[in-house]
Amino acid sequence: MLLPQPSSHGSLEKTLNRADYRTIEMAVHAFDERAWRLSGEEGIAARVGLSREHLNSLFVQWAGVGLSLFMQGLSVQHIRKKLEEAGELSAFSPLPERRCQVRSLPFGQGKRLGAGLAITYGCYPTPFGDCLLAMTGAREICHLSFVDGEDGLSARAELGQTWPQATIITDNRGCTTLVERIFSPAGTESLQPLRLLVSGTTFQLKVWQALCVLPRGAMISYEGLAASMGHPTACRAVASAVAANPVSYLIPCHRVVRKSGEIHHYRWGSSRKKMMLGWEACVS
After folding, report:
1. At 4, is the pLDDT very low, low, confident or very high (cuts 50, 70, 90)?
2. Taking residues 81-106, what's their average pLDDT?
C-alpha cells in the first residue's frame, strides 16, 4: 500500500512506499537533541543506513522541508515556545466552523452499544502509516486508528469491541476521498465540518470536544487543557480522556504534550506523534 505525499496544494497524488515511510519513522525515532548537536544530519542518516542527501530528499518529498528544518520543530525549545503562545484554549481564535462536529451516544449501554448501526470500514494510506477508518451509514466517522502490521487485526478487533452490536462491513475503497480530505496539508476548515460519532462519559466528551478547537500546528499542555475546561486540578483525568480518544488525528490528542516540552507516550506510538507534530508544523 502506498502513502500520500503532502504538498502545499493538498494533492495526494504522489506517494511514498512503505519502506520509505518506515525510514522516515526510524529517523524521527532516532532524533535526540543531545545527539543532534553532536552529529546532526550525518548521525541520523547513518542510523537509518542512508546518505544524508537521500534522507533529506525523503523528508522534502514527505514534509516539504529537509531534515534539519523538520527536526527543529521537534526541539524542546520550539515546543515550549508553542506552549507559551498557546497557554490555554482561549488563546486560539475559534474557527467560523469547527473542522469536526462531535456527537455522542449515551455511555453505559455496554454490550448493546451500536445496535442498529451499519458500519463500513477499510484500511487506507496516510502520511503517518496505514489507518483503519470506520463510518456509519449516516456518514459519521465513528473510528480512526493507525494500523501497525500487515493485517490490521487488532485495529479491527478494537472496532468490534467499541461497537459490539453494530453490523460491520469491509470496504477498502469507499472512503478514499474522505481520507485524502482528512490528511490534506491544505486543511479543510473552510469545508463543511466532518461529523464524528463517539461514545464516552460526559467528561471524556468534554475533553474530546475541547481538543477539536486546536488548529493544525498548535500544541497545548495537559495543564493548559485542564485549566481551559475549568478543571485545573484534573490533569490526570484529562490525560486519561485524551488517551481514550477513539478518533485519532481528527480529535487531535497528539497536539497535547508535557509542559516540559517533551513528546512522550502516544496510543499509536511516540514516534508517530512526533511525525504528526513535525509534519503539521511544516505544512500548516
Report:
1. very low
2. 73
Torsion of CA 141, 142, 146, 147, to 10 degrees: -110
Whether 89 contacts 214, CB under 8 Å: yes
Q: What is the DSSP letter of 246?
A: S
Q: How many residues does the chain have?
A: 284
* Same-domain pairing of 44 and 144: no
Bridge-based pairing of strands 15-16 and 3-4 is antiparallel
- In order of 11, 204, 284, the CA distances from 56 in angstroms are 21, 40, 20
148 pLDDT higher than 90: no
3-state helix, strand, coil split of the chain in percent (to 5) is 45, 15, 40
Residues 6+ apart with CB under 8 A from 202: 107
Contact present, 125 and 3 (Cβ < 8 Å): yes
Please classify residue 84 by burial: count the beta carbons closer than 10 Å to its beta carbon, then call 0-12 exposed, 13-18 middle and 19+ buried: exposed
pTM for this entry: 0.87
Q: Which residues contact 153 (CB under 8 A, 6 or more apart)?
A: none
Give catalytic status of residue 253 as yes or no: yes
How many domains in the chain? 2
The C-alpha atoms of residue 211 and residue 89 are separated, in whole angstroms, by 9
| Whether residue 106 sits in one domain with residue 217 | yes
Q: Tell whether 146 and 264 lie within a shared domain.
A: yes
Match 506510538 to its residue by C-alpha cell.
269
